[in-house]
Amino acid sequence: MDNNTAIIVDNVSKSYRLYKKHADRVKETLSPFRKKYHRRFNALSNISFDVKDGESLGIIGRNGSGKSTLLQIISGVLNPTEGSVTVNGKTSALLELGAGFNPEFTGRENVYLNASILGFTDAEISKRTDDILDFAGIGEFFDQPLKTYSSGMKIRLAFSLMAHMDSDILIVDEALAVGDVYFVQKCMRWIKAFQTTGVLLLVTHNLVALRNLCDRAIWLDNGKMIQEGSPKAVGDAYLEFCLKDHQDDITGKDSPGDSQYEIESVRSMDKIPRQPKKFVDQRVKFLNHTQYRNDIKIFQFDPARSSFGKGGAKIIDVELRDSESDKPLSFVVGGELVKLVIKCRAESSLFQPIVGFFCTNSQGQELFVDNTYLLYRDKGLTFEKGDVFCGTFEFQMPLLPAGDYSISTQIAEGTQTEHVFHHWYHESLIFRSMYSATSLSIIGIPMIDVNIKKM
User: Fold this and answer.
1) Would the pTM of this model clear 0.85, i.e. be above it?
2) What fold is seen in the domain 281-433?
């Protein structure tokens, strides 16, 4: 095994025998003619990959795709039916909520039990107990039976225990999905620090976490490896697959009828003006004469970028325009009014088309999202084949920290919950924030007024 390789998964398969009835298992065992009463289910089929020291690998896939089974094999909980796994280093795993804990034992007793299984002496565990309790933040419940814990408290204790086991390899199976936001943020900070020296294997459905935490990703489906590569490439392919799968489920169904209450609610919303009052940030004159001015470079629409969809409509151009002159922008300053114009062409008759977009940063975090559905939901909007139309969104450009950003655009047909994507354009518009006074948040918002005064 290469000294720089932490994990080698070599042609691993895992299969189970499934019986229709419990009695069939006994019949098969006692059958003199070795008659089979089972069918074989392959949870994993011929999975191979390796993980280098210091690398973080993300694993994505639908429920039942084999992700958890793979992690259980790597962590030693399960044995493979075929193939082998080689692990070079001490491993800690957070696989299931409360896995390995005894509900009758207190939190403290469970810490001692699990740590001793990992080879720690009572003296070594005692040195870590205060730090484990402090990180978990469960207070007096530490000495109460685990059966009295909420799901969030269990995950706090489990993660805190894992974080203090001096591991080389960390395996996390979506467990943080049940934690409260403050504890999740604490865990994320700890994971970021751990990644500077350790190996991370992360199962997640969160594509933002995948891009933010992982160096590489694999996608499993029905126990097979579908794709391996960068988190962005694998995540985009998986997203496309999931959306197509969802579309196939609803294609051909009649659009669900809107209730009278829902229609009246939308009509009342139509009476609310969407255009905000224009205002001036009093600091703009100062900022625009310093290095803090938020200069944002806009790159032109690239029709060759990755896209997918059913093809009933096509996005043919995307521009960010000046709100007053309606001219395309090559540069914009954060805080200015702009128009996002998404130009489309109907390739077939369209009923209730929805034009939308979402803006993300380089880590894949969604900054803002909108679409046209609510304002046109009860208007019976239609386009015929060959019609060219635009979806337009006017807004105040947020203040963006320095870095790269993108806008992905979509045109769909249907409702907010059940729709068919005719064209989904990945990163159809790219822009780069060159300078900014905003550095401590994901985005900044132009202020109407800022002051400090004695009350």
Assistant:
1) no
2) Coagulation Factor XIII; Chain A, domain 1 (2.70.50)
